[in-house]
Amino acid sequence: MKKELDGKDHSILAILQSEGRLSAENIGKRIGIPKNTVLRRLRRLKGQGYIKAFSAVLDPYKLEKSVGVLVLVNVTMNDEPNKEEAKKEIQQRIAGEILKIPGVQSAWVVSGPYDIVIRARAETVFEVGEIVIKRLRLIEGVKSTLTCIDLLPATESLKLQIPELSGTKGSTSGKDARHDKTLVFKTDSDPEE
Predict the structure, then answer these.
(1) Would you say the C-alpha torsion 104, 99, 17, 188 has a positive or negative sign?
(2) Reduced to 3 DSSP states, what percent helix, strand and coil does the chain have, rounded to the nearest 5?
(3) Are 133 and 116 contacting, i.e. CB atoms less than 8 angstroms apart?
(4) Domain ranges of the chain
């Protein structure tokens, strides 16, 4: 099944990323559609998983969680017959356990010399030590860790780049989807073309 997003959907997503508290009525005024249409599109975008959640982005410095860290984790591999599949399962299990640790914000299974990358926040470096030494390293399968502490305030952004759309569907501007009013995104369940 193909999911289609048009220019209005992209505009709604871009506006919400910048101004998440803006009302459906104001979003509609900005992009030229009625409030009820905006609400219907928001329900559809949420239902299809394009919008994962509506939430506030908190300031960790004001909330005394100013120590940010990335922790790189290596996992232990037992003598498994199918090493790649077993490693994937071990990584996913460990990442799931890591996410239960207070202070951990995210855990990604990654490629490269490390198996998992963790993002965490704490009040003090001592608290980071508690997270890494007394919680993380005690998880079965964790072989080693490398902790990198933020030295400067974060300049991160949680925003995704939303492609700007121009032209109309079926325009003669080429086959590049960026110039087509409708973008088609394939899902894992799409048949091979």
Answers:
(1) positive
(2) 35, 20, 45
(3) no
(4) 3-56, 67-149
Q: The CATH number of 3-56 is which of 1.10.10.60, 3.40.50.720, 3.40.50.2300, 1.10.10.10?
A: 1.10.10.10
Long-range contacts of 100-109 (CB under 8 A, 24+ apart): 101/131, 101/135, 101/136, 102/131, 103/65, 103/127, 103/128, 103/131, 104/131
Angstrom distance (rounded) from CA 179 to CA 172:
9
**Top-level CATH class of 67-149?**
alpha beta
Per-residue pLDDT of the chain (193 residues), as tens digits, is 446 889 999 999 999 988 888 999 999 999 999 999 999 999 999 999 999 988 888 888 888 898 999 999 999 877 666 677 788 889 999 999 999 999 999 999 999 999 999 999 999 999 999 999 999 999 999 999 999 998 887 676 777 888 765 433 333 333 333 333 333 333 344 434 3
Enter the pTM of the model: 0.68
The terminus-to-terminus CA distance of the chain in angstroms comes to: 12
Distance, in Å, from the CA atom of 107 to the CA atom of 111, rounded to the nearest integer, reads 13
- Name the amino acid, one letter, at 79: D
